[in-house]
Amino acid sequence: MNPEALLQLDRVIHEKGRLAIMSMLAASPELSFTELRETLQMTDGNLTTHIRTLQEAGYVAVAKSYRNKRSLTTISMTEAGRAAFAAYLGLLERIVREAKPR
User: What is the tens place of the pLDDT at every residue in 7-61?
Assistant: First the structure.
């Protein structure tokens, strides 16, 4: 296996919490902050930090609105995020293929 492939993994996505967020967003057009928090069992602060990192990388968009007079924060994956996530998964698949015994 070529160890260079491991060094090419996107460190923004590779962290466990951010990988979970990106995986969930890949399967849904958008999710609320609450849905992500409850499903991933993260604290508000931890989830906020991960979302901010993904947002700064241009991988997710955050929208704030109101529903029934309550604030609602939704997160969605951007086109850049979808491309980065697809590239990340492709590289992981390559690493797994190369690591399998023959």
Answer: 899 999 999 999 999 999 999 999 999 999 999 999 999 999 999 999 999 999 9
Query: Environment class of residue 61 by beta-carbon count within 10 Å: exposed (0-12), middle (13-18) or buried (19+)?
Result: middle
* Surface-to-core class of residue 97, CB atoms within 10 Å of its CB (0-12 exposed, 13-18 middle, 19+ buried): exposed
pTM: 0.91
Domains identified in the chain and CATH numbers: 4-97 (1.10.10.10)
The one-letter code for the residue type at 95 is I
CB atoms within 10 A of CB 43: 9
Residue 86 three-state SS: helix
- Residue position matching structure tokens 């529903």: 67
